[in-house]
From TrEMBL:
NCBIfam families: PPOX_FMN_DR2398 (TIGR04025). The lineage of its organism: Bacteria, Pseudomonadati, Pseudomonadota, Gammaproteobacteria, Pseudomonadales. This is Pyridoxamine 5'-phosphate oxidase family protein. Residues 28-147 form the Pyridoxamine 5'-phosphate oxidase N-terminal domain. It holds the Pfam family PNPOx_N. It comes from the Bacteria. It comes from Pseudomonas brenneri.
Amino acid sequence: MLTTLEQLDTLYGKPHERAVHKEIAFLNEDYQAMVKASPLVIVSSSGADGLDGSPRGDVPGFVRIIDERTLAIPDRPGNNRLDTLRNLVLDPRIALLFIIPGIGETLRVNGRAQISIDPELLESFAVHGKPARSVILVQVEAAYFHCSKAFVRSDCWNPDKHLERSALPSAGAIHKRLNDGQFDAEAYDREMPERVKATLY
């Protein structure tokens, strides 16, 4: 087993100079363009109860650029586990991975977060008259873009490789198994499209 940093460095060698230079402590024009184009960001956090990686998604640009060192992410209704928010209350470190459909490159942003419940800020993120529940304010400490190799290897954006939803268990079926069969999977799946639509914001 590999157990030391020295072993790791020996195995992989030094990072390429370009890989070092692409990390900066702010969002330049190119990195801001990636944030504005992204409808999906994976939010990673750490807290006393463990790690969390959760998706946040909306129309492209839903993550607001306050300035080159500050981002604002609206929080919408969800399952109320609040894993990310609980972590951030205890440990402000946060990592973001911005994904853009059809584009191989992704943007990684690391920083520290605060959770704002300022009424004016929440209202500024309102959709269909419903303000954000809270807003995660991220102070950028490092930003860098990842090359496209992961998406090239996975062929993720190739529509010919996309699975039909029926290829995997439905959400209702998963709940039923987790509840030892004591769950109405059919009703859950049947009602889900309207339920999701009604609770997006």
